[in-house]
Amino acid sequence: MGLNLGKSFDRSYNLRVPFLDGYYDLGVFFSKKSSFLLFDLSRSSSRSSVRINMFKNLEASVFCETFLNLHNYRKNTLDIINQFDSVRTEYDSYITMCMNEGVTLQKVQVGDKDFFDNLTIYGFTITSHFNEFIFIVAERQNIIKRLDKKIVRSTGIQIGTTASLKILDEFHEDSLKGKESKIVIDVEKTTKLTDSICEEEDEIL
Question: 110, 120, 134, 167: least surrounded by Cβ within 10 Å?
């Protein structure tokens, strides 16, 4: 599908996401000077059984609510909303991080310290439905030098088959009851999430 971009977006990061027996081409559009993010997605084939949802607010996502710890923090020099922090410990065996990559846009010097303006992409899947579900988080860290401020914003896109979304709903329902899902999977074949590379920066100055 085509995407009309205004002057707010002047950069893009593109990647190909394997899914079932095909793939999706995903574009992440953003600005070098702001924290705004926008997804554009095109598929290799049309599948009516696949649902796609985008989330400007990650807290509105059932996947994030169930499986992820999100980091929020605000002070004069730092403004973080919904930054990916970690997968909840009780779900380590059920969720696999399948993507962790990024690009540094520029180095910004504030006083005698160097900070990096960057874009990071995280991808997660439900281990038992590895090729049928993916949730991608795009995180933008933007340094506004004139304000001596770092802004972190994230947005998400979810692609899932009917079967994988049913499993997601079951996990979510069980999490609301205060317990892990009773879904049985082969733990020996799961991939455990490594430690998150996200590190909290308390301040710029």
Answer: 110
